[in-house]
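Shift notes (night). Ran Two pore domain potassium channel family protein while the centrifuge was going.
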Amino acid sequence: MLLNLLTGLPVMLLCLLLQAIFMAKCLRHYVRFRHAQQGRESQLLDILLLSMVMLLMLLMLLGNFVQMAIWAALFMLLGEFGDFATALYHSGVNFATLGYGDIVMSARWRLLGPLEAANGILMFGVSTSVMTAAVMDVIKLNMARLQQSERP
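Came back to this:
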């Protein structure tokens, strides 16, 4: 068990670092776009902002796929799988917490699966919170516009 933790925790830390990088890049692009559009009021702006949120979602999802590939590479290095496609499939099932159980690792490394699942559920949660914050920003923008238009 200790060997699994000593092997998996550095990978989790790497995934956290990657998630932070993807998140910072996505938020920086959103803030720049939002700032460039400041002062404009239209339904088209709302559509553009929400489209930017969807782009953020895709980029965050790409970050999650990269993390799955890192876990798959670890499984390959440990000799658990003969090909990368199978390792990636197993990693995706763990990361997304699906838990099919159709492919299992050896008893020696089996605890890496739940460790990756914990990592994955945290990363999907962080991705969701970033998208929720961006959508809330669009809602606040619309509320501020509404309040300004109601002022005498």
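The helical segments are 2-36, 43-77, 84-95, 112-150. The chain has one domain: 2-150.
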